[in-house]
C-alpha cells in the first residue's frame, strides 16, 4: 500500500475516528445523564402532583361519604317513590323539600356542580347550581361504567371528562358515581351521581410551571390512553398512545424516556397515580417536556464543543494534507528515485526546492548518487582493464599450447623426410599465425572458419586416415563477429581426448546456425565421450564459479585437462557476459557435442 495512503488511514483511524467516537460517547453519556437526572426530578414533581390530586379526591370523597349517610339524604331515597309533582306529599317530604335538603347539604361543597339521586326503580331527583337536565336513569344504567359502579358496592367511582361519552361531561368536569346503602340495614337504596368541577386541578399543575410559556405539558390519562385533562387544553379527548405511537406503554412502571412529541424532541415521563382506593381507576399522569428546555445551556455547550472539535479536526486534516503529505511525498519520490538507481539509472536526480531539511535531504541524495556514479565509472574502467589483461593472458595460454602441438607434428614429418607435407603444414601454420597475431580480439565467422580449416588440414597430416571433418554454416551470418581462436581449441580437444583411444574412423562435425538473437556453434565428434561422473562436475549457472580446467579430473596430466576448452569458456563469459558460454552434451562411448552460444554482433572493422 502507498505510504501516503497508510499515513492518511493512520490519521483517520488513530485521530479522527477516536475523536469522533469519543465525542459521540461523551455526547451520548451526557444525554443519558441529563435524561436520568431530569427524569428523577420530574418523578419527584409528579409525586408531589399525585399527592395534591390524592388530597383533592380524598376531600371530595370525604364530603360525599359524610352526607351520604345522613338521615336527610337517606330519607330522600326512602320517600322518593311517594312524591308526586305538584301534589302534596303523603309524608313530610316534597320536591321543594328535596331541593332544599340537597342545596343545604351536598351542594354546599363548592366543587360539586350538580347531584342526581336514583332509587332502585329508576326514579330520580336532581339539583344543581345551574339549570340543566339530569342524566336519565336509562342512560346511566346502560352505560359501560354501570357494572363497575355496582361491583364497587358503595365505594365511589370517579369518571373523567369524555371518559364515557354517554355521560357528556365538559372540560374539567368529573363524575363521582356510587351505590347508596341503607345506613342501618346495608340494603341498596339506589345510586348517586355527583358532577364536580375541579378548578383546583389547574392550580395544581400550574404551580409546577415556573412561567406561562413553560415547555412542560401535563396530561391526565386513563388506562386506555384517553387524555381527559391537558393543562394546555389542546389535547383533551385525544389518545396519548397514538401521539407517542410505539414509545409509550401504560402497563409499564414509572419511567422517563426521550421521544418525538408533535415533531419535537421531548422528554416523556410516566407516573401512575395509584388512587384506586379513592375510586380513581388506573389513572396516570404523563409529563412531556421539550428537550431544549431539559438540556438548556448544556445542549448549547455540547454543540459548541462539537463545533470546536470539528473545526480542530478540519485544521488537523489540512495539516495532514499540507505538511505531512509533503513529507510523505518527498519520501515516495526518494523511494521512486532509489528504485530507478537500483535499475541502473544513475542520471536520476531529485528536485531541490525550499530551505528546510527536506531540501537538504534531496541534496544529499543527489550528491550520493553522483558519488556512486563516479565510483561505478571507476570500477567499470578498472574492470575493463582487468578483462583485457585476462584476455591477453588466456590468448598467451592458447598460442604456446597450439604451437607446441603443431611444431611437434612438423618435426615428425621432417624426420620422415616428407618435405612436401612439411611445406604444406608450414604454409597453413603461417595462415594460422597471421590471424592469431592480429591485434583485433574479434574476427568474422568466415575468418574463424578459414582459420579452423587450416588447423584441421594440419591435423590431417598428424592423424592421417584416422578422422575426417565436415563444416556447415549459414552464409547470412558469416559476417558476424566472434572471438578469434574459439573453435580451434574445441576441435583440438576432440582430437586429443576423443579419438586417441578409438580404433575406428573419427568424424568431427562443425555447424554454425542462426538462432534468432544468438548464434549457435556446434562441435560434435564420435569419440569415446565423457563419463557421467565428469559431466556431473560441470555446473551450468549464470555465473561460472569454477573454471573448467579445475573441474576436470586432477589425476590427468596438464596437457589432457582440456585447458583449451576452459580458456574458450572463460573468454566468452568475460567478453559477452554471463548468459553466453559453452554447453557440453556427451554419452560415454557415443561421442560428445559442445555448443558455443554467442550474441549477434559486428565489429567496427567487419
Q: How would you characterize this protein structure?
A:
With 606 residues, the protein is an alpha+beta fold. It is 48% helix and 19% strand. It is built from 16 helices and 17 strands. The strands form four sheets. It has a five-stranded antiparallel β-sheet. A five-stranded antiparallel β-sheet has the order 7-6-10-9-8. Strands 12-14-15-17-16 form a five-stranded mixed β-sheet. Strand 4 (173-181) and strand 5 (188-197) form a beta hairpin. Residues 86-92 and 540-562 have low confidence and may be disordered.
Features:
alpha+beta; 606 residues; five-stranded antiparallel sheet; transferase; coiled coil; 19% strand; phosphoprotein; EC 2.7.13.3
Low-confidence stretches: 86-92, 540-562
Number of strands: 17
Overall form: rod-shaped
Strand order of the largest sheet: 2-1-5-4-3
* Average pLDDT for all residues: 81
The assigned structural class equals: alpha+beta
Describe the main β-sheet briefly: 5 strands, antiparallel
Number of helices: 16
Query: What is the gyration radius calculated from CA atoms?
Result: 62 Å
Q: What is the CA–CA distance across the termini?
A: 53 Å
Percent strand: 15-25%
Helix content: 40-55%
Could you give the topology of this structure?
Layout: H1 3-68, H2 71-79, H3 95-103, E1 112-119, E2 124-128, H4 137-141, H5 146-152, E3 157-159, E4 173-181, E5 188-197, H6 199-206, E6 216-221, E7 227-230, H7 240-243, E8 255-260, E9 265-272, E10 284-290, H8 291-295, H9 297-342, H10 357-415, H11 419-436, E11 442-444, H12 445-462, E12 467-473, E13 481-483, H13 487-499, E14 506-515, E15 518-525, H14 532-535, H15 548-551, H16 563-576, E16 581-587, E17 591-599
Helix pairs in contact: 1-6, 1-9, 9-10, 10-11, 10-16, 11-12
Amino acid at each position: 500500500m502507498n505510504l501516503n495512503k497508510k499515513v492518511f488511514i493512520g490519521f483517520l483511524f488513530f485521530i479522527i475516528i477516536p475523536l469522533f467516537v469519543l465525542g459521540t460517547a461523551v455526547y451520548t453519556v451526557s444525554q443519558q445523564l441529563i435524561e436520568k437526572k431530569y427524569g428523577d426530578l420530574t418523578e419527584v414533581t409528579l409525586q408531589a402532583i399525585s399527592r395534591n390530586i390524592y388530597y383533592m379526591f380524598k376531600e371530595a370523597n370525604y364530603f360525599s361519604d359524610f352526607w351520604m349517610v345522613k338521615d336527610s339524604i337517606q330519607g330522600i331515597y326512602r320517600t322518593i317513590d311517594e312524591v308526586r309533582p305538584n301534589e302534596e306529599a303523603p309524608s313530610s317530604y316534597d320536591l321543594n323539600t328535596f331541593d332544599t335538603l340537597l342545596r343545604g347539604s351536598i351542594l354546599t361543597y363548592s366543587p360539586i356542580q350538580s347531584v342526581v339521586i336514583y332509587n332502585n326503580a329508576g326514579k330520580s331527583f336532581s339539583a344543581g347550581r345551574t339549570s340543566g337536565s339530569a342524566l336519565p336513569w336509562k342512560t346511566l344504567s346502560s352505560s359501560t361504567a354501570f357494572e363497575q359502579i355496582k361491583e364497587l358496592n358503595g365505594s365511589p367511582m370517579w369518571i373523567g371528562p369524555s371518559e364515557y361519552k354517554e355521560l357528556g361531561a365538559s372540560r374539567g368536569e368529573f363524575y363521582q358515581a356510587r351505590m347508596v346503602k341503607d345506613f342501618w340495614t346495608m340494603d341498596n337504596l339506589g345510586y348517586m351521581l355527583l358532577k364536580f368541577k375541579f378548578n383546583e386541578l389547574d392550580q395544581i399543575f400550574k404551580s409546577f410551571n415556573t412561567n406561562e410559556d413553560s415547555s412542560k405539558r401535563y396530561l391526565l390519562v386513563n388506562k386506555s390512553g384517553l387524555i381527559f385533562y391537558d393543562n394546555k387544553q389542546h389535547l383533551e379527548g385525544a389518545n396519548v398512545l397514538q401521539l407517542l405511537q410505539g414509545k409509550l406503554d401504560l402497563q409499564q412502571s414509572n419511567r422517563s424516556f426521550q421521544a418525538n412529541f408533535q415533531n419535537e424532541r421531548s422528554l416523556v415521563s410516566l407516573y401512575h397515580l395509584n388512587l384506586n382506593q379513592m375510586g380513581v381507576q388506573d389513572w396516570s399522569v404523563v409529563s412531556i417536556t421539550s428537550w431544549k428546555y431539559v438540556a438548556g445551556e448544556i445542549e448549547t455547550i455540547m454543540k459548541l464543543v462539537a463545533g470546536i472539535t470539528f473545526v480542530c479536526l478540519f485544521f488537523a486534516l489540512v495539516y495532514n494534507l499540507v505538511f505531512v503529505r509533503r513529507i510523505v511525498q518527498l519520501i515516495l519520490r526518494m523511494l521512486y528515485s532509489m528504485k530507478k538507481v537500483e535499475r541502473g539509472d544513475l542520471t536520476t536526480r531529485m528536485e531541490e526546492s525550499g530551505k528546510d531539511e527536506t531540501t537538504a535531504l534531496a541534496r544529499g541524495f543527489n550528491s550520493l548518487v553522483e558519488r556512486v556514479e563516479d565510483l561505478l565509472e571507476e570500477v567499470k574502467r578498472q574492470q575493463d582493464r582487468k578483462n583485457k589483461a585476462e584476455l591477453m593472458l588466456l590468448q598467451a595460454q592458447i598460442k604456446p599450447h597450439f604451437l607446441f602441438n603443431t611444431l611437434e607434428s612438423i618435426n615428425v614429418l621432417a624426420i620422415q623426410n616428407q618435405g612436401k607435407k612439411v611445406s604444406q603444414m608450414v604454409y597453413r601454420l603461417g595462415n594460422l599465425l597471421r590471424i592469431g597475431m592480429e591485434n583485433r580480439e574479434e574476427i568474422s565467422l568466415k575468418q574463424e572458419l578459414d582459420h579452423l580449416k587450416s588447423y584441421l588440414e594440419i591435423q590431417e597430416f598428424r592423424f592421417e586416415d584416422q578422422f575426417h571433418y565436415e563444416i556447415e554454416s549459414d552464409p547470412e551470418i558469416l559476417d558476424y563477429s566472434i572471438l578469434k581462436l574459439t573453435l580451434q581449441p574445441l576441435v583440438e580437444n576432440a582430437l586429443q581426448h576423443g579419438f586417441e583411444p578409438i580404433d575406428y574412423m573419427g568424424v568431427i562435425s562443425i555447424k554454425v546456425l542462426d538462432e534468432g538473437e544468438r548464434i549457435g556453434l556446434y562441435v560434435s565428434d564420435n569419440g569415446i565421450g565423457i563419463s557421467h561422473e565428469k559431466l556431473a562436475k560441470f555446473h551450468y549457472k549464470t555465473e561460472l564459479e569454477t573454471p573448467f580446467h579445475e573441474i576436470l579430473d586432477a589425476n590427468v596430466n596438464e596437457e589432457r585437462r582440456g585447458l583449451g576448452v576452459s580458456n574458450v569458456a572463460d573468454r566468452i563469459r568475460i567478453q559477452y557476459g554471463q548468459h553466453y558460454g559453452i554447453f557440453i552434451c556427451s554419452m560415454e562411448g557415443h561421442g560428445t557435442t559442445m555448443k558455443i552460444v554467442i550474441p549477434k554482433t559486428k565489429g567496427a572493422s567487419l
